[in-house]
Amino acid sequence: QVQLVESGGGLVQPGDSLRLSCTASGLTMGLYIIAWFRQVPGKERQGISCISGSDNSTYYADSVKSRFTISRDMTKNTVYLQMNSLKPEDTGVYYCAVRRGRRVTRGDLSWKLYRDWGQGTQVTVSS
Prior knowledge:
Layout: E1 3-7, E2 10-12, E3 18-25, E4 32-39, E5 46-52, E6 58-60, E7 68-73, E8 78-83, E9 92-100, E10 116-117, E11 121-125
Parallel strand pairs: 2-11
Antiparallel strand pairs: 1-3, 3-8, 4-5, 4-9, 5-6, 7-8, 9-10, 9-11
C-alpha cells in the first residue's frame, strides 16, 4: 500500500523560503513519477512540479520556474520542493502524489493522472 507523508509547510512572509518534503512508503521510487500540487479553496488542484524517480527529469509550472526546485533522495524515498522568493499567490495546501512512469512531461502536472496522494501541508505566505 502506497503511503505519502508531506511536511515542511508553515506561515512565512513574502520573499521567504520553505522546503517541503514528501516521504513515500510501499513503493519503489525508481518506478514512479512524483509530483507536487497546490490547492486553494474554490479552485482546481494545480500542478506545481514533478520529478522522475527513474531518470531525474523534472518539469515545472511556469508560475514557479526559477523560484522552486524539486529534488529526490532515493536513499530516503523522499522528494523535496525547495520554494524560494515566496509570494502570497503561492499560498495553499500542497500535496504530493505519485504515479507509475518514467520520463516526465508537461502532462504529468495534471492531477487527473494520479491516484495516490498525501494528506497535504499548508503553506501560507503573508505579511
